[in-house]
Automatic annotation (TrEMBL):
This is RN212 ligase. The gene is Rnf212. GO terms for cellular component: synaptonemal complex. InterPro entries: Zip3/RNF212-like, Znf_RING, Znf_RING_CS. Keywords: Coiled coil, Ligase, Meiosis, Metal-binding, Zinc, Zinc-finger. Residues 96-123 form a coiled coil. It comes from Myiagra hebetior. Residues 153-167 have a biased composition (Low complexity). One of its GO terms (molecular function) is SUMO transferase activity.
Amino acid sequence: MAVPVFCNSCLCEPRSPTPRFHLTSCGHVLCEICLQKGKKDECLVCRAPCRTLVLSKQTSPDIQILFMGIDVLCKKYSKEISQVSEFQEKHRKNLLTYYKQKIAKLEESLKKVTQQIQQIQCMKPPEKTTPIPFSSTSRNSFSIPSRKQNLYSSSSLHSSRPSTSET
């Protein structure tokens, strides 16, 4: 059911022969008779400067919607809202599926790499320290043994020459 249209000044409703109604830019509806009584470019109801638009079947849908019943609007827009909601939900599900698959692949890769690391750690021989040989160019250099070597041999720091106490 459409909203009844009436003049906001004289409160007349459309009748036969129907006077044309106008919508002001300030939001008032005036019949043609009242519109002629007022000043040009001024609303007869609120006295604000305004423009007017003739209400007819050719009026833009944006204006016609103002006079549509709420029940009709609800039915119209609930269908559109449902379509939009279903469309967006479908796309959210697709995106969620994509990310779930991506996560599953990454978790599988992580699992494989973790297994490889564990295998490498099991196969790795215990850490060995290799002594650094003295070269002819580094006669005066000393090699500092690691802590493990210190535990096993305290004489590794002594040079090959006997100390003064030994001679």
